[in-house]
Q: What sequence folds into this?
């Protein structure tokens, strides 16, 4: 039952005596503190304080009492329960604490140096943690290859469907329009030189060598890497990964390896579908714009393009899959305990994966150029 804060001031042979009663809390305080301060003004030197009849007391009430009797009031002249007296002492100590001075803003050159140094330290730490992640993942992969019974096949098949097969429509649609755009640009540009028939070779090489794997990898980076980071990050926030470790389950074996293997097994199929869709898009454009029929189109593809470019693209697929799955899972494992960290890591997973895809494709292009493939 709530009781309003009240007080009673009396005078005895020992001096003024202030007795408080009721609930001295933020909700029941009212103006009792100001009235009490007015009543004891001028009599605080010999004042004694009685809090034994106070029903409830919180920090707001304790601060109001100290403000009414004076900040330098001797707490030895207070009759109260131990917990009430302790609260008065804590509030007085908090009020006497010096405010924290504002941080000194460093000079621009110094701030730049500090930012560069922090960036170098963060990069070093990131590289170290990446190597630790790769080492742990390689151990799990070798352990699963030696003993396939350790593989969680239901989780692997489920992830192959969600991360791979469910992406077939978007991969095929995007590759179709990419092939159509390449065909349209090639037809318009080559028609100026009377060489529009070579638009078929342009479409074949561009789609079978570069765009099929690039489009597939970028879509998987935006679709699967973010999904992996969000799923594992949510488990990390809910301490489910900690519970798995307590139960003796390796999170890399239960969470990372199935996602790694799922992308590794499904990305060749997605690349093949992207190749067919891109060629079909180019065929539609060359047929409608240049009047080159399907038989002519595919004959020039077979004679002048061949399957070498497709195998070149397919050789990049395992590396792309490993990078996408690794980045997504690693960012998920780095999630902290708040939602902001989860959003930051999911964004980082997508950005890092796309950046890695572009860099890896450029490296492959340089290597194959040197090998004249």
A:
């Amino acid at each position: 039952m709530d009781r309003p804060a009240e007080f009673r001031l009396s005078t005895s042979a020992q001096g003024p005596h202030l007795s408080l009663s009721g609930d001295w809390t933020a909700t029941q305080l009212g103006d009792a503190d100001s009235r009490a301060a007015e009543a004891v003004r001028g009599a605080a030197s010999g004042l004694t304080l009685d809090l034994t009849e106070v029903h409830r007391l919180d920090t707001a009430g304790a601060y109001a009492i100290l403000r009414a009797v004076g900040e330098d009031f001797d707490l030895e002249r207070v009759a109260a329960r131990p917990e009430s007296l302790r609260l008065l002492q804590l509030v007085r100590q908090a009020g006497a604490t010096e405010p924290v001075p504002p941080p000194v803003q460093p000079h621009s050159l110094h701030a730049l140096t500090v930012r560069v140094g922090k960036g170098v330290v963060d990069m070093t730490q990131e590289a170290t943690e990446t190597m630790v992640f790769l080492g742990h993942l390689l151990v799990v992969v070798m352990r699963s290859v030696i003993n396939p019974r350790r593989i969680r096949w239901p989780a692997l098949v489920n992830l192959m469907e969600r991360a791979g097969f469910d992406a077939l429509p978007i991969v095929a649609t995007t590759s179709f329009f990419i092939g159509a755009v390449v065909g349209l640009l090639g037809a318009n540009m080559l028609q100026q030189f009377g060489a529009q028939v070579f638009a078929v070779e342009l479409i074949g090489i561009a789609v079978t060598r570069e765009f099929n794997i690039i489009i597939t990898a970028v879509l998987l980076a935006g679709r699967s890497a973010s999904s992996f980071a969000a799923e594992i990050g949510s488990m990390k926030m809910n301490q489910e990964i900690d519970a798995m470790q307590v139960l003796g389950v390796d999170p890399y074996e239960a969470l990372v390896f199935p996602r790694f293997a799922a992308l590794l097994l499904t990305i060749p199929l997605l690349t093949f579908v992207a190749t067919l869709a891109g060629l079909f898009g180019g065929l539609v454009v060359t047929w409608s714009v240049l009047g080159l029929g399907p038989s002519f189109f595919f004959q020039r593809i077979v004679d002048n393009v061949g399957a070498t470019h497709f195998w070149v693209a397919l050789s990049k697929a395992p590396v792309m899959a490993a990078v996408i799955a690794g980045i997504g899972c690693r960012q998920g494992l780095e999630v902290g305990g708040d939602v902001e960290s989860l959003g930051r890591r999911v964004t980082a997973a997508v950005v890092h994966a796309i950046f890695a895809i572009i860099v890896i494709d450029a490296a492959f292009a340089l290597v194959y150029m040197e090998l004249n493939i």
In short: DSSP finds twelve helices and four strands in the chain. The mean pLDDT is 85.
